[in-house]
């Protein structure tokens, strides 16, 4: 299989549809060796067991690449761009970097999938100016047809059956990113607990409310602190950006065994890249949602104009996998 | 003007100066409501024209948010180059946030016991 990659100046974002382990290794190995020959810095961000497969395929060359476990760093898809993809490109200014990024795999929960789809779409905007070639492997047998159709919409180029072609279905990433949250499911009928907050002085009550419920739900204490901080930052954004009250709801999702904290307010998140690009050291704002994504196991953050306001959901796994 | 007496923000945060203007001890929570109080107190500590490091005892700090850490980082950058901000017993979140956003550049020395 021979695949030529035209470098260009900005982002190259391609999907590789593979049928089995052989196609997986063959497609990615070619891609990686090409990068190593060009002396490009190479990052491999794939889930768990795939790491070993690719390491052994590269043999002694593997030491020239960096490997990270996507199931860990990308468990929350919202935290893939800033510390992984964007950081790797920034670490190597002046040259092209080559990345294998596998954010979508069979076994992602529906909520994780929505966030991962939004992530795949936003890569096209957030990293548009980066000299990066990103290849995203998709399991053609293991994933639902819908996921493969989505991959055709989020990747300008597709590699399938050894052919590398522009995707006819590629569309405006803003539309895909916004659309990924059009179907945010209703919270369970029994709403759990709710709290309205309206001023900075209420934030302490917000944190106590989260702490009490999270401890009762059985979240480990270190993670309780993480969740309190995350909810605090989102609630702070509500107060700073809307000047109006926000509503905090907390419930347990029995399907995913997660504690979910939802913060809804009257604001609109107009900037789709909020929380995706780290600000410069001396910039005062722009870190809150990056921090929230770092702290939580999953963050559902719809973009674009949906209904009358903004709803953000923070998920924390009650059991460590 | 130096920070000569304790500053409080309701019952949420108390900032008590150390002897000789070496620094201050914080007890309570730093968040959107109280970060401005911390900023004002640090401005006073920085205004005192003195040598040596600036010490903050955070053993009694129950919570600090991103805006609170930003206030500390800003204060650290305002110190003369030969001075450092030394933070004693910081809460884990502070270490995490500084490392995540200002790692390597923040002139904060962490004294973790």
Distance between the termini of chain A: 37 Å
Query: Helical region count of chain B?
Result: 3
Largest sheet of chain B: 6 strands, mixed
Order of helices and strands of chain B: EEEHEHEHE
Inertia-based shape of chain A: globular
How would you write the strand order of the largest sheet of chain B? 1-2-3-4-5-6
Helix/sheet category of chain B: alpha/beta
Question: What's the order of the H and E elements of chain A?
Answer: EHEHEHHEHEHEEHEHHEEHEE
Strand residue content of chain B: 25-35%
Strand composition percent of chain A = 15-25%
SS elements, strand count of chain A: 12
Helical residue percent band of chain B: 25-40%
Distance between the termini of chain B: 32 Å
Low-confidence stretches of chain B are none
User: Which strand order do you get reading across the main beta sheet of chain A?
Assistant: 3-2-4-5-1-6-7
Which ranges of chain A are low-confidence, i.e. pLDDT below 50, for 5 or more consecutive residues? none
User: What is the tally of beta strands of chain B?
Assistant: 6
Number of helices of chain A: 10
**Oligomer classification:** heterodimer
Instruction: Decide which structural class fits the backbone of chain A.
Output: alpha/beta
Radius of gyration of chain B: 13 Å
